[in-house]
Design brief:
With 1400 residues, this protein is an alpha+beta fold. It is 35% helix and 13% strand. A hairpin with a 4-residue loop joins strand 9 and strand 10.
Length: 1400
């Protein structure tokens, strides 16, 4: 046993310890009989101490220890319900004196560094900074809020007295937490952490940290033997002296290093009271973190736990974390790894992501192992925790690796435990093995033992055993396994000890490494003795020179987390409810440290230091209180009071924010059917609020409450969006809440008074009682809003009556379209039709058609048989409704051309005919009990003439222009869709679907009841006219009557027009009716009349070629080639998850692989004839096979103002096609590989990271196949993947350039971009639509944005902007043939010109 005092690392907090008190016996360490935790031991008074508590005691100083470990049992300090300690005295945790020879300096390899003082405010050069001082105490508004427990535009009021207050608050900032400008003035440090949770962050709470002290071993060197062997093997005694006290001191990495058994490593942990922060690491970028706390404020309070200059306002510390902020080399005293430590780390850090021991270094590394790291290189980076309320801060490192990796220590211990030596229990077997390691190291260092250790002899096998684990650990401390001479002439494998000659660099390295191993193993063994003292009672222990003491209470006390400082108690069961664990973490505290005072403090401190996230903190605070109530516990009155107080100040939760959006009409079920996201303009939100207020006014019974709800919702949304504009608008409107009924009463006018009379009365009231002018104005404003009167609004703005207001707009500017419900997509479509010159000129003359004349028009059966649209006969009903539709459309075109107002309101009948198909009408009438014979539809065609049998192609609907579903499926208001019914056709190629292209190909011969017959022509030859359908002369039996249908209640989201369809159905229905309305039924013209304007503008011709894909089929000539020509009106581009350009998307359509007859086949498409208008559909609706739900892809698709279609022509250069195909094939392969490696859900890199992290930290379950080699392979695989990903990206860029180079001189077939349709929203089921149109032909660089009633000029950059991260994405691109002159965007005529012409 040791005969002298312990050697412990030096400290920087004061003089060495004095042993004025004796050890505490285990029997009296814990008191009995009380439910209170034991008090803290006595500490020096009036002294601000840091964390450098561990001392190097001189030889003459007795060791400061609580009890004698060799003669007493031990258990880890813990909270127990026992009585207070009696008369026993406990020694100081941090002794007040220090007479050690270490006082004053800390030697570092020949250098001397002055020790830092724990309370020194100037000891850090270049550290910290200063800022504006926070408020230093209670302000006049603290605790004096008055009012009616409501939140108004001028601030807050509450009848509940504040229950919690903390210093550093600012009234203006708390009231305007949402305002970035206010937050910037104060520059708060962001979210904070309370001490109990900081203690968990410092080190794994399941692991224990120990301070380590060393007693110089009383071991005598072995007498030298005068033999040839020893004379050649041993160095002289002078070159191998026993380790000195200095050697033992530096065996511990740092004075503030604490040993962790579970990691077999060290944690550098230091706390200090100083208003000057430690110097920051060079790599630390403050701009990437929240600001540091105000240093001037921190100087004023030494500690939050002691007496504070402004009274005891803070319950505890409030720390802020800055990861990897401090360089360990800059500490006082500094810490840096020596050469051999750095090599050990670099060789094995891959094993766990943190440094640990591992394989030997390379020869080049060995040459530099004795050198200290270069000064310019950073050392270990430490996390910094700074209290914003006082001068305390704390720094902590990750695990500094031990010499032997914890994995091997655990493996060896498990092996010894599972296979105990004869005569020993498992615990004794483990200790015996490790003590043998200690003995071997001690013999080498202190006794200069150099004899090799034969690993296969019985003694070695019995005491240690031999395995790969044992070999790795011996190699870690320098032993070398090699063959040596055995007894007689035999050869045996032995472990040869390393040289420890202090005159050589290698010897010094080996000596330092073995000493560190000896200290770590000694600490491990000492802890094992404590944990299994009962099982080791009969075991005769090895002399132990290493002592350990738990550091948990010490660092808990240092940072203010000790139970005596913040009491611990078993929390109510409701507070351990799993879902609120995130709430505790967000507030920076733990459930076990709960008290109502601490919870209140945590919430208030977070709001003070991170005002931007005040709603988040209130959500978590309120969630905890509500959970207590919901799960049967009664929240303390103080918590309830604070909730009421915060509600009175206008605080809201995340739930409140969601409800606010719904209250204003946002969401899939709301009247706006628009998702409230960051892309929604502020003006739109303000209009939504006004609409919500108007809706409230229309409910006489709940008017007041609904209006308050709308106003509160508007305020919440304004604050959540940090919008000063919206917040100001709310404040101005909320000072005096007035509803219309009260407004009419205040002004003493009837509700039906005209605007002119109302203004007269208002002026009289103001003139009579000017002191009440604000009241009169508020009343007039309410009436203006409920009437939506532009005249009254303008009067309120200017003070002058404008008369009957006509909203002025620039004469040359296009006119907008007012919404008639959820018709934003219809408005976009109608505006698009108006920009098409030929279509507009064809329809415009029909504006004067009399509706009555249309209704009286008669058609004979022969007339009906003369024309087919969409491959079928049309009915009288369809003809009549189509003519009405075109008549209303022509009238709308006239208004768009001549109207002086900024926007035009389409006729409701136009919207109904556009949105409701003839089949919808039929279904509705059937629901109402049927229809008469005059309302003939598809089912009544037999009454109009001879029956006809439709071919298969006519029995299923083809896809729409925007990617729609089968007609019988549930329609969604989306920009594309999920499924369609495949057509059947005589052509074998028609039923083939590509797995890569959209699920809604419009080239499969699917008939459409809403478009021209040319769109559904399915023949094996190229035909541009409608396909003639064969009629049967045989009479077709009359189908049985339809069964009675149940009546359906339409939802509020269904407009007044009936069923709501998606954009695609709307476009199909419009074009279908235009084509029918332009047909001639007078027998004087054929089908190729004006009705062909639709085909002429929108339809082109393609050639499809289906051929074998596999080489075996090609060689065997067993696969036939199918070719056919067909018409098309759009080109689909499937938009998945990854961004690409428009050429990439089209390439996937023109050259694809499809499944046909059970085999993979190539589908090649080429363009035979191109239309003047080229419509490219970006099909964004995708299907998630995991959730079985449709979703909208937000991927960015790059496009430019010109596109060249030469490469897709059937007549394109064959050689270039072949070359481009090879490049495209390689490009697709590279992209698919990159997609596989980087896909968010299946990323190989992320999978490797997760696997590596799991395997490195796995301790509970042994995994036999996991070793250092596997971990190293996983790390190297990560590097290989990163290199491969980078190389793939370079290759893709190069291949893309090569592909464009092939077609660089093919630009004869040029198309210019004319229109871009936008869908804004994250859901495919709903959203908002608008579109951009280019001012052609006059101003091609000018773009207009058509957003319902608003039309504005926008920059070209907005149209072509990268939409990554936005929910507003293009879903339809329209190009016009260069020089075709089909687009005339702005068609405006001055009405006065008509008057002048008429006069002339």
């Amino acid at each position: 046993m040791p005969s002298g005092p312990p050697i412990t690392p030096p400290t920087s907090s004061g003089p060495p310890p004095s042993s004025t008190t004796g050890p505490v016996e285990p029997a009296s360490f814990y008191a009995t009989g009380s439910g209170h935790p034991p008090p803290l031991p006595s500490r020096p008074k009036n002294q601000n101490l840091g964390s450098q508590h561990t001392k190097i005691a001189s030889i003459s100083t007795p060791p400061p220890t609580y009890h004698d470990l060799d003669h007493s049992s031990f258990r880890e300090p813990q909270l127990v319900e026992e009585a207070l300690i009696g008369d026993d005295q406990i020694p100081d945790l941090i002794p007040p004196d220090n007479t050690s020879s270490w006082a004053g300096s800390y030697h570092t390899r020949g250098r001397t560094m002055d020790r830092g003082n724990a309370t020194d405010n100037t000891g850090w050069s270049g550290g910290g900074g200063s800022g504006e001082a926070w408020e230093t105490g209670p302000t006049p508004w603290d605790g004096s809020w008055g009012g009616s427990n409501t939140y108004g535009a001028s601030g807050w009021g509450s009848t509940v007295a504040p229950v919690t207050d903390i210093d550093g608050r600012d009234k203006d900032e708390e009231e305007n937490w949402w305002d970035p400008a206010v937050r910037e003035q104060h520059r708060r440090p962001g979210p904070g952490i309370l001490p109990p949770r900081v203690a968990e962050y410092l080190h794994d709470p399941e692991h224990s940290l120990f301070s380590v002290s060393i007693t110089p071993p009383d071991l005598k060197p072995k007498p030298a033997q005068d033999t040839a062997e020893t004379s050649t093997s041993n160095r002289s005694a002078g070159a191998n002296p026993p380790p000195s006290n200095d050697d033992l001191i530096y065996a511990i990495p740092h004075p503030n290093a604490y040993y962790c058994r579970r990691d077999n490593g060290w944690v550098l942990l230091q706390w200090k009271s100083s208003s000057i922060l430690p110097p920051l690491a060079k790599s630390f970028k403050p701009e990437n973190y929240n600001p540091f706390p105000d240093q001037e404020r921190r100087k004023r309070t030494t500690s939050c736990l002691g007496e504070q200059p402004f009274g005891q306002m803070n319950k505890t510390h409030h720390f802020h974390r800055y990861e990897k902020a401090v360089d360990a080399k800059m500490l006082n005293p500094p810490f840096s790894r020596t050469g051999w430590e750095g090599i050990t780390q670099s060789a094995s850090s891959s094993a766990s992501g943190t440094p640990s021991s591992g394989p030997s270094a390379t020869p080049a590394d060995e040459a530099n192992m004795d050198e200290d790291p270069k000064p310019e290189e950073e050392g270990d980076l430490l996390d910094l925790y700074v209290c914003c309320q006082c001068s305390l801060y704390c720094v902590v490192s990750g695990v500094i690796p031990g010499v032997a990796a914890s994995k091997y220590v655990d493996e060896y211990s498990r092996d010894r435990f599972s296979n105990p030596a004869v005569g020993k229990n498992p615990q004794e077997s483990v200790i015996a093995g490790w003590e043998t390691f200690l003995t071997i190291v001690e013999n080498r260092l202190w006794k200069n033992e150099v004899r090799p250790l034969p690993v296969h002899r019985k003694t070695f096998q019995a005491k240690i055993g031999w395995s790969d684990t044992v070999r790795v650990m011996f190699e870690a401390i320098g032993f070398v396994l090699k063959e040596t001479e055995g007894p007689g002439d035999t050869r045996e494998m032995s472990l040869n000890p390393p040289t420890t000659d202090i005159e050589t660099a290698e010897g010094r390295r080996n000596r330092a490494r073995m000493l560190r191993f000896w200290v770590e193993l000694g600490a491990w063994v000492a802890d094992y003795h404590k944990r299994f003292s009962i099982n080791l009672k009969e075991y005769k222990a090895h002399s132990m020179w290493i002592k350990i003491e738990s550091a948990r209470e010490m660092y808990q006390t240092g940072i203010g987390a000790h139970p005596d400082q913040l009491a611990r108690a078993l929390p109510p069961t409701s507070l351990t409810y799993g879902p609120i664990e995130h709430s505790w973490e967000s507030l920076g505290m733990t459930a076990t440290s709960y008290s109502w005072e601490l919870l209140n403090f945590a919430y208030m401190a977070q709001c003070r230091c991170d005002p931007k996230n005040t709603p988040i903190y209130f959500s978590h605070f309120y969630g905890i209180v509500r959970t207590m109530q919901d799960r049967g516990d009664i929240p303390p009155q103080e918590l309830q009071n604070l909730v009421m107080e915060e509600r009175g100040r206008g605080r809201y939760t995340d739930e409140d924010c969601n409800r606010a959006a719904e209250a204003l009409g946002f969401g899939p079920e709301g009247p706006l059917r628009v998702e409230l996201d960051n892309d929604v303009p502020e003006e739109f939100i303000a209009d939504a609020w006004r609409d919500a207020v108007r809706r409230a006014w229309r409910d006489p019974e709940n008017c007041s409450q609904l209006q308050r709800d709308a106003n509160d919702a508007f305020r919440i949304i304004a604050e959540a969006r940090e919008s000063a504009k919206l917040r100001t608008l709310w404040a101005e409107s909320s000072r005096n809440i007035m509803d219309p009924s009260r407004a009419y009463t205040v002004l003493e006018v009837p509700t039906d008074v005209e605007d002119s009379m109302l203004l007269t009365v208002y002026c009289m009231r103001v003139e009579e009682q000017p002191s009440q002018s604000d009241r009169w104005r508020e009343a007039l404003n309410a009436i203006a809003e409920v009437r939506d009167s532009a005249r009254l609004r303008q009067f309120l703005e200017t003070g002058q009556d404008p008369g009957d207001v006509v909203m002025s707009a620039r004469p040359e500017l296009p006119r907008g379209l007012n919404q008639l419900g959820n018709t934003c997509y219809l408005n976009s479509l109608l505006q698009y039709f108006y920009t098409i010159k030929d279509l507009r000129e064809t329809i415009a003359p029909l504006a004067n058609t009399d509706i009555k004349t249309i209704e009286e028009e008669k058609f004979s059966d022969d007339d009906l048989k003369r024309h087919r649209v969409g491959g079928r006969l049309v009915t009288r009903r369809e003809i009549l409704r189509s003519k009405k539709f075109v008549r209303y459309l022509a009238d709308l075109f006239w208004q768009l051309e001549y109207c002086e107002l900024a926007s035009v309101t389409p006729a409701e009948e136009l919207a109904r005919l556009a949105l409701v198909t003839s089949r919808d009408e039929e279904d509705d009438e059937a629901d109402r009990g049927g229809t008469d014979a005059s309302n003939d539809t598809d089912a009544t065609l037999v009454e109009d003439g001879p029956a006809s049998v439709q071919p298969p192609a006519a029995l299923s609907r083809r896809d729409s222009i925007l990617g729609k579903r089968s007609r019988d499926e549930v329609a969604m208001d989306v920009d594309s869709s999920n499924s369609s019914k495949p057509s059947t056709s005589t052509s074998t190629a028609e039923q083939v679907e590509s797995p890569r292209r959209s699920k809604f190909p419009r080239l499969r011969g699917e008939a459409n009841a809403g478009l021209s017959a040319a769109n559904t022509a399915k023949t094996a030859t190229a035909e541009t006219q409608d396909v003639e359908m064969q009629t049967q002369q045989a009479e077709v039996p009359k189908p049985p009557p339809l069964p009675a249908r149940k009546s359906q209640v339409a939802s509020e989201s269904v407009m007044m027009f009936g069923k709501q369809h998606d954009v695609s159905e709307c476009m199909d229905n419009c074009l279908f009716q235009i084509e029918i309305a332009l047909l001639k039924f007078d027998g004087m013209s054929d089908q190729e009349d004006k009705g062909s304007v639709v085909k002429r503008l929108f339809f082109g011709k393609i050639k499809q070629r289906l051929s074998a894909l596999s080489e075996a089929d090609v060689k065997a000539k067993s696969a036939s080639i199918h070719e056919k020509e067909d018409l098309f009106s759009h080109l689909p581009v499937n938009v998945a998850e990854h961004s690409f350009d428009i050429y990439d998307g089209l390439s996937g359509y023109f050259d694809d692989v499809v499944e046909y007859e059970g085999k993979k086949n190539r589908m090649e498409v080429s363009l035979v004839d191109l239309p003047p208008l080229l419509q490219i559909q970006l099909q964004r609706v995708q299907f998630n096979r995991e959730t079985l739900q449709a979703y909208k892809s937000q991927a960015y698709v790059k496009f430019e103002d010109m596109i060249y279609m030469d490469r897709y022509l059937d007549t394109a250069n064959a050689e270039k096609k072949a070359k481009a195909k090879e490049i495209q094939k390689e490009l697709n392969t590279k992209r698919e590989r990159l997609r596989t490696l980087t896909h968010e859900k299946t990323s190989y890199v992320e999978s490797l990271n997760s696997s590596l992290d799991f395997l490195s930290k796995q301790e509970s379950l042994p995994i036999p196949d996991v070793d250092e080699e596997l971990i190293s392979q996983l790390n190297s695989e990560q590097d290989h993947l990163k290199i491969e990903i980078e190389e793939l990206r370079k290759q893709i860029t190069s291949l893309k350039d090569d592909l464009e180079l092939v077609w660089s001189d093919e630009k004869q077939v040029a198309y210019e971009l004319t229109s871009v349709f936008i869908h804004r929203g994250s859901s495919p089921s709903w959203g908002h639509y608008f579109f951009y149109s280019r001012h052609l032909p006059e101003k091609p660089d000018v773009w207009y944005k058509y957003n319902d009633s608003s039309v504005s000029e926008v920059s070209k950059n907005e149209v072509f902007a990268d939409t990554t991260g936005s929910t507003a994405n293009p879903y339809l691109l329209v190009f016009s043939r260069k020089g075709s002159d089909v687009i005339d965007t702005v068609k405006r005529t001055d009405p006065m010109a008509l008057v002048i012409d008429a006069a002339d």
